[in-house]
Design a protein that fits this description.
The complex is a heterodimer. By secondary structure, chain A is mostly beta strands. Chain A contains no helices and twelve strands. In chain A, the strands form three sheets. In chain A, strands 2, 5, 6, 10, 11 and 12 form a six-stranded mixed β-sheet that branches. The termini of chain A are far apart. By secondary structure, chain B is mainly β. In chain B, the strands form two sheets. In chain B, strands 2, 4, 5, 6, 9, 10 and 11 form a seven-stranded mixed β-sheet that branches. Chain B has a four-stranded antiparallel β-sheet with strand order 1-3-8-7, with no helix packed on it. Chain B is globular and about 40 Å long. The chains are: A mainly beta, B mainly beta.
């Protein structure tokens, strides 16, 4: 079955520190993976995606993600967190052939001043 | 604003009433998706369209739910005989054709069933 897991419901990090939001996936075939962010009372916004190629993907707002095929992981990272990064983050596999995007329950990131 | 537009933004209704939500996607996008999100959960897939064709419908969607996309432009999601369990945020997203395109989301329509 196609699925995604974000093992941490919430991640707390101090402003200026590096952050990691974890994601593991289970999809058949080549994985296409996205990260989306949801700020309070705002729509979901695209951060970055992995289709093929370099395992380190750079995205919006200084975020990047590392694709690891052997560990079936796609962790989101940022070298220096900002308070404004506090939001709900979703790792989203795209299921080719069905054109469906699968959302998990997300990880709430809280950056403390 | 040329993003995805959803209306109404908030709808309060009494149990048993019918409600309809509208989504206007980005004009050149031929794929359109509906998701439902409840508090503390991620968006759940409901249905999607390629142009005017509804290609898949989730088992979450009971017979009380129907979606259309006439002429492959805007889409409507209708819920008949609403129940309190239908209270949620209904999200619309669109994307260009091709594989694994970026989804562009609207700000959602929040339904409250009393």
């Amino acid at each position: 079955a196609q699925s995604v897991a974000q093992p941490e419901d919430q991640v707390n990090v101090a402003e200026g520190n590096p952050l990691t939001v974890k994601c593991t996936y289970s999809v058949s075939g080549n994985p296409y993976l996205f990260w989306y962010v949801q700020y309070p009372n705002r729509g979901l916004q695209f951060l970055l995606k992995y289709i093929t190629g370099d395992n380190l993907v750079k995205g919006s707002y200084g975020f990047e993600a590392e694709f690891n095929k052997s560990q079936t992981s796609f962790h989101l990272k940022k070298p220096s967190a900002l308070v404004s990064d506090s939001a709900l983050y979703f790792c989203v596999p795209f299921i080719s052939g069905t054109y469906k995007y699968i959302f998990g329950t997300g990880t709430r990131l809280k950056v403390l001043a | 604003d040329t993003g995805v537009s959803q209306n109404p933004r908030h709808k309060i209704t009494k149990r048993g009433q019918n409600v309809t939500f509208r989504c206007d996607p980005i004009s050149e996008h031929n794929r359109l998706y509906w998701y439902r999100q409840t508090l503390g959960q991620g968006p759940e897939f409901l249905t999607y369209f390629q142009n005017e064709a509804q290609l898949e419908k989730s088992r979450l969607l009971s017979d009380r739910f129907s979606a259309e996309r006439p002429k492959g432009s805007f889409s409507t999601l209708e819920i008949q005989r609403t129940e309190q369990g239908d209270s949620a945020m209904y999200l619309c997203a669109s994307s260009l054709g091709g594989s694994a395109g970026e989804l562009f989301f609207g700000e959602g329509s929040r339904l409250t069933v009393l």
